[in-house]
Amino acid sequence: MKSVQLGKTNIQLSEIIMGCWVTGGAYWGGADDQESINAIHQALDLGVHSFDTAYIYGNGHSENVLGQAVAGKRDQVQLISKLWKDSMSKDKVRPACEDSLRRLKTEYLDVYFIHYPSDDGIPVEETLGEMNRLKEEGKIRAIGLSNFSLAQMKEAMQFAQIDIIQPCYSLVWRFIDADVLPFCREHDIGVIPYSPIAQGLLTGKFTRDTVFADNDGRSRAPIFQSPWREGALEIVDVMRPIAEKYQKTLAQLAINWVNQVPGITAAIVGGRTAAQLRDNAGACGWQLDEQDWQTLDKASAAFCATLPKFRNFFDATVIDE
Fold it and tell me: Would residue 299 be called left, alpha or beta, if left means φ above 0 and alpha means ψ between -120 and 50 degrees?
């Protein structure tokens, strides 16, 4: 698996990044810690050396499990975490970061994100002022923004060097195409999208009638509700013959397509088990030809044009910008 440069930094990320949301045990209907550790070790064996987590994934549990799994391997991995909404005031940024460092058993984070813009009116200048100080002290190597609009990004860039963003992006969710992605290409800002397989919707495992347990966040996620689920599954139907042509799984095809989008640095892909990590790794080392990529692109763009502009596909907040 190849490594890719993160924006203007000297940080090298693996071409797919293991997302550790499921490791936290919340939203996805629970997780087994040993199974999560086995998956992380499998990722390392496959050459996936970059890991994305956050405090809010199980209130620190994901960070704890990831820290345990990579103990003694810090020089081999890149660790990415995020500052949650309740810790964005000046007096809370440093304690939140240091708590993440403690849970991850590390002295520094390769990337520290603001997970979402503040809901409480805390100026981004205040948050980034503290993050800049942490960066000067070597506790953060790069500062990133997750789930920010272009206007919010531009404001943040007045107060810190923003090296990377983390948006929601897939064949069924492409709002950043209009403005954010071109801006990042122009300014050499890294883009590591999450949910490239749309929380499993693009794997072919689910049907129009699949019912999720109440403790699984997908039971409430907008993209899994009618009529958008049906529309997304039509994209899966377009994918099937192309996946068969390349002898790849639907998940591998979905990830590969995202990684071929100009301006994308590396896709973040979750994995509950070692088997899922092996499947994810099969998205690397090959390319779609131009005609097949365009077939998917056109079908995807047509579907995405029908979607309300939700913040992301598990948050039904409509943003009007």
Answer: alpha
What are the catalytic residues?
57
4, 50 contact by CB (below 8 A): no
Q: How many CB atoms lie within 10 A of CB 36?
A: 25
Q: Which residue in 131, 91, 85 sits closest to 108, CA to CA? A: 131
Return the structure tokens found at 30: 């629970």
Q: Given 3-state DSSP classes, what are the helix, strand and coil percentages for the chain, each rounded to the nearest 5?
A: 45, 15, 40
DSSP 256-272: HHHHTSTT---EEEE-S
Element (H, E) at 164: strand 162-166
At 61, give phi and psi (nearest 5°). -65, -40
What end-to-end distance do the CA atoms of the chain give, in Å?
Answer: 38
Q: In the structure encoding, which two tokens stand for residue 104, read together? A: 């991850």
Long-range contacts of 30-33 (CB under 8 A, 24+ apart): 30/215, 31/272, 33/65
The per-residue pLDDT for 321 is 47
Domains annotated on the chain, with CATH: 3-313 (3.20.20.100)
187-227 pLDDT tens trace: 999 999 999 999 889 999 887 887 888 777 777 777 888 88
Tell whether the model's pLDDT for residue 105 goes beyond 90.
yes
Contact between residue 131 and residue 93 where contact means Cβ atoms under 8 Å apart = yes
Q: d(Cα 107, Cα 140) in Å, to the nearest integer? A: 9
